[in-house]
Design goal:
Layout: E1 3-4, H1 12-16, E2 20-24, H2 28-39, E3 43-47, H3 56-59, E4 63-64, H4 71-90, E5 97-98, E6 101-106, H5 115-124, E7 129-132, H6 134-140, E8 148-154, E9 158-159, H7 162-175, E10 179-181, E11 184-189, E12 192-200, E13 207-210, E14 213-216, H8 222-227, E15 236-245, E16 253-256, E17 261-266, E18 269-280, H9 292-305, E19 316-326, E20 333-336, E21 354-358, H10 364-384, H11 418-423
Parallel strand pairs: 2-3, 2-14, 3-10, 6-16, 14-21
Antiparallel strand pairs: 1-13, 4-9, 5-9, 6-8, 7-8, 11-12, 12-13, 15-18, 15-19, 16-17, 17-18, 20-21
The protein binds flavin-adenine dinucleotide (FAD).
């Protein structure tokens, strides 16, 4: 049911008998959740304050893999890759390019010792990942291996253009009947977690609209939005960077774990990145240009790692920065949210009504097809409100938004690191 206090009252439930659900955030997670909710019969409105993919999803590198050591991460990533492949065949405007993903650790890096057991754990979850001798790697791929102690190859990986995914899913959202309201910033109102203050561009007066459920998938803005309803979540934005180069590159995706740099083929030649800035960033005001130190350090890694670059330098086409989000334990927050015991938690007839999906630690895009699906199934199960079927709930305990005490610290670390994968 959707109600507006400044527009004539309408009761969409009486028209459609479908739950009305607002999704806040038109990035990869929000737009996927909106499509999956609508395809399951919900009456969905997707709010995006700018254009679709205006923030992190439009700035992501599009590195996609399933090489995770933890069981829930591996399962989610496997499902995401399955959907990316399927969308590559069926979603107009979206292309998935299969490409192996190499994890490389240099001589002298203590993380080298952890790679075989990490790979064993990935394989135990059915992921097609193998430890390879660096010299065998050189036989297969055009990359330098002389300084490597160990490497692993994930075969089930690939890459895509993230903005094209969001745009294509946005069109599918229209087709599924989602009301896609871009240029519309929303905020939560203190006191009723499912009443949204809706502020459309163009000078019209803000209105308050009420929904059966609200999903906040607002990336780096998530904590600020939930704070509007008095709800604190430990989701901290931080800045990361990427660049594109005109150097022709037709090799695998490579993560040089020792340098903390990843690279992949790109239509202009090559895309490389990480450049994590280990401090909290202000999502309203951060520098969107790549730093000189980042360009220099990536250039050095490319000279060392990619044969094609040789001594010519990476011929940078563009360097940029965007935001990722960290949490105290490196896992995201996906599920119902609210201060436990507070009457504002939003429980109606036993069902949770306010949900969050954020805190991806640099892996939000590659898992979005699975996360959006999880959110859709979880929200609808929660709205069903059948406590007796709690064991059938799709929500993942490790991602429960209420698992924190509130006094944890958030350490900002590079998302793809070996350490991060092992702690998963
Ligand atoms: C340089 C870079 C490279 C990256 N590379 C990868 C990669 O290779 N693989 C990977 O998996 N991840 C990568 N990431 C991380 C990835 O971009 C994010 O994890 C992912 O895009 C998060 O998607 P999201 O939908 O949660 O957030 P976002 O894409 O940020 O979407 C949130 C949306 O909410 C909107 N919004 C905010 N406030 C409001 C409001 N009040 N009302 C309405 N709308 C609002 C924003 O405008 C935004 O469009 C990278 C990130 C960067 C910056």
């Amino acid at each position: 049911m959707t109600r507006s206090t400044s527009a004539p009252e309408r009761d969409s439930r009486s028209e459609t008998d479908s739950p009305s659900i607002a999704v806040v955030g038109g990035g990869a997670v929000g737009v996927t959740a909106a499509v999956d909710l609508a395809s399951r019969g919900a009456d969905v409105t997707l709010y995006e304050r700018g254009d679709l993919a205006a923030e992190s999803s439009g700035r992501a590198a599009g590195v996609l893999y399933d090489a995770y050591a933890e069981d829930v991460d591996a399962a989610l990533a496997a499902r995401a890759m399955e959907r990316f492949r399927s969308f590559g065949r069926s979603l107009p405007g979206f292309t998935f390019t299969p490409c192996p993903y190499v994890i490389a650790v240099r001589e002298g890096d203590p993380d080298a010792d952890a790679v075989p057991s990490m790979v064993d754990r990935m394989r135990a979850h059915g992921r097609d990942v193998s430890v390879v001798d660096p010299s065998d790697l050189a036989d297969r791929f055009p990359i330098s291996v002389d300084d490597l102690a160990v490497a692993a190859v994930a075969e089930g990986a690939g890459w895509c253009d993230p903005a094209s995914y969001v745009a294509a899913m946005g069109r599918r959202a229209h087709d599924e009947g989602v009301a896609v309201e871009t240029g519309t910033a929303v905020s939560l109102t203190d006191g009723d977690v499912t009443a949204l203050r809706v502020d459309a561009e163009g000078g019209s007066a803000p209105e308050t609209r009420e929904f059966d459920a609200v999903v906040v998938a607002a990336g780096a803005h998530t904590a600020d939005i939930l704070a509007g309803a008095g709800i604190a979540v430990p989701v901290v934005p931080y800045r990361v960077q990427a660049l594109t180069s005109r150097i022709a590159y037709d090799g695998p995706m490579v993560y040089d774990a020792t340098a903390g740099v990843y690279l992949r083929p790109h239509p202009t030649g090559l895309l490389a990145g990480d450049g994590t800035e280990p401090v909290a960033a202000d999502p309203e005001e951060y520098d969107r240009a790549g730093d000189d130190w980042f360009v220099e350090s990536v250039s050095e890694t490319l000279r060392e790692r990619v044969d094609a670059v040789g001594g010519e330098g990476p011929d940078v086409e563009r360097a940029w920065a965007g935001l990722c989000t960290a949490t105290p334990d490196g896992d995201p927050l996906v599920g119902p949210v609210g201060p436990v015991g507070d009457e504002r938690r939003g429980r109606v007839d036993g069902a949770d009504r306010l949900f969050v999906a954020a805190g991806w630690q640099g892996h939000g895009f590659m898992r979005a097809p699975a996360t959006g699906e999880l959110v859709a199934e979880g929200v609808l199960a929660s709205l069903g409100g059948d406590e007796s079927e709690a064991s059938a709930s799709p929500w993942i305990d490790a991602f429960a938004p209420d698992r924190f005490d509130g006094d944890e610290t958030v350490e900002i670390v590079e998302g793809m690191s070996i350490e991060g994968r092992l702690e998963g």
